[in-house]
Design goal:
Layout: H1 5-49, H2 63-68, H3 72-103, H4 109-117, H5 124-134, H6 143-155, E1 165-166, E2 172-174, E3 180-182, E4 191-197, E5 224-230, E6 254-259, E7 262-268, E8 274-277, E9 286-289, H7 309-334, H8 338-346, H9 351-379, H10 383-388, H11 394-397, H12 400-408, H13 415-444
Parallel strand pairs: 4-5
Antiparallel strand pairs: 1-4, 2-3, 3-9, 5-8, 6-7, 6-9
Length: 445
């Protein structure tokens, strides 16, 4: 009996351990099944599918992986993904660090952090729609171009007659560069009429008055007089090339007298379209209306053009994720030993020296985790690129995730190549994930 007593006591313990193990497996099993169904199986299926052609019937081995580096569209996606990885995490980490330090100096720090963190509550789909509208080329719709155009127009005047054109066979011809000049010459003491069409009656400046009165003034011996007018009679009637009573002048136009290709005199038309080119010596001149009179209005920046579409989308990404970086870095900043900062101030260090030589080195582990987390997130960006980039420049903005979708389901119908792209994306993300996991484990020791 004494020999079997320890064995008898051990049996209940083994049964209790087995029971606890069974309970633990029962709780973990649903998560493992979901992990297998949603992660492991898709990864293994994608690896296998990447070895077959577009139809999935013929084994092609590594041909799809070789095609990745032959396809110009895919190479653009790799280039854009590289730009994202290099630019976005660096900017976000830097902005987050600066804002986290500055919010410590602000009285309403909590409200400020909340305001910056709010975009995280907006889905990428909604953010993409918001920025697609903000980046619209039309200043009447795109808020960014509305601001750019307002600033531009504050310093540079706009032409009031971008649609004006000279009436044919009336002595005016368009010159290279968009200006208009007389086909013949004039001499001092003469008067001329320069008729234009293509200006809507409601686009004529409100100060404009009938042009016929300007034709009654005789030019002096050293000047050329004339009138620039809208050669169109509202309601019909009138004679082309003749200033009729109901036809208005075009005020604010610049007129030049040229001799031997050089400007001899300049004038600006009045409310009735009249101008007076004074101080002219004897001889022949041509009259020119410079291209500035007909310049199209400034339309702003083509944010979603081929050159700026990727930086524009990165800007939208910064708007969303800056609050995330700031909050995480701010948490690390709050844990810093204040004694080190106070000791540096007592030793005479200024705030910039404290920031550069104490705050940043002590925050290095937090900054590294934030940076690597953002790198992982940037590699998977899809929504913003797909929604913001217009169709004509979609290829210029594509990253690996959008290219993978387009190749597989967006018209390419080549799931073999799409699977190869997904495997490539996985291989690029895994090292960053492993690095982050190791940093988390190291921080717990």
């Amino acid at each position: 009996m004494a020999v079997n007593a320890p064995a008898a006591a051990a049996n209940p313990r083994r049964r209790a351990q087995r029971r606890r193990r069974a309970i633990a497996i029962a709780f973990v099993l649903p998560a493992l099944l979901l992990l297998g169904a949603l992660v492991v199986y898709p990864v293994l299926f994608s690896i296998g599918r990447s070895l077959f052609d577009a139809t999935g019937d013929r084994f092609v081995g590594g041909e799809n992986y070789a095609e990745i580096f032959r396809d110009p569209a895919t190479l653009k996606a790799i280039r854009n993904s590289t730009i994202w990885v290099v630019v976005a995490p660096v900017l976000l980490t830097g902005l987050g660090l600066v804002l986290a330090v500055l919010t410590e100096k602000v009285r309403w720090a909590t409200a400020f952090k909340l305001l910056l963190f709010l975009p995280m509550a907006v889905s990428f789909l909604a953010a993409g729609i918001i920025f697609r509208l903000a980046y619209e080329q039309d200043p009447d719709r795109g808020v960014l171009n509305a601001m750019v155009v307002s600033v531009h127009d504050s310093f540079t005047g706009n032409s009031a007659y971008p649609t004006a054109r000279a009436r044919e066979d009336q002595g005016l011809a368009e010159e290279p560069g968009g200006s208009y000049g007389t086909t013949g010459t004039v001499t001092p003491g003469e008067s001329i009429s320069l008729g234009f069409v293509g200006v809507a009656p409601d686009a004529v400046p409100p100060e404009a008055t009938p042009a016929q009165g300007a034709t009654r003034t005789q030019a002096a011996a050293d000047e050329v007089r004339g009138v620039v007018y809208l050669d169109f009679t509202p309601g019909g009637g009138g004679k082309p090339g003749t200033v009729d009573p109901k036809e208005n002048g075009l005020p604010g136009m610049t007129v030049e007298a040229l001799r031997d290709g050089k400007v001899a005199a300049t004038a600006t038309t009045g409310p009735d379209g009249s101008f007076n080119l004074k101080g002219l010596a004897g001889g022949s001149y041509t009259v020119r209306l410079p291209a500035d009179n007909f310049a199209a209005p400034y339309e702003g920046v083509s944010w979603l053009g081929p050159a700026l579409v990727t930086p524009a989308i990165i800007g939208a990404y910064l708007w969303i994720w800056t609050g995330f970086a700031m909050v995480l870095i701010g948490a690390g900043l709050a844990a810093l030993p204040r004694e080190a900062l106070e000791a540096a101030r007592m030793d005479g260090a200024n705030e910039w020296q404290i920031f550069r030589k104490i705050t940043v080195p002590l925050l290095a582990p937090v900054l590294t985790v934030v940076f690597v987390t953002l790198v992982i997130n940037v590699m998977k960006v899809f929504d913003l690129v797909y929604i913001i980039a217009p169709g004509p420049v979609q290829e210029e903005a594509n990253v690996l995730a959008t290219q993978m979708w387009l190749v597989s389901f967006g018209g390419g119908n080549n799931q073999g190549l799409g699977s190869a792209l997904s495997v490539l994306l996985l291989l690029l993300v895994v090292p960053a994930m492993i690095f982050n996991v190791r940093r988390f484990r190291g921080s717990r020791k």
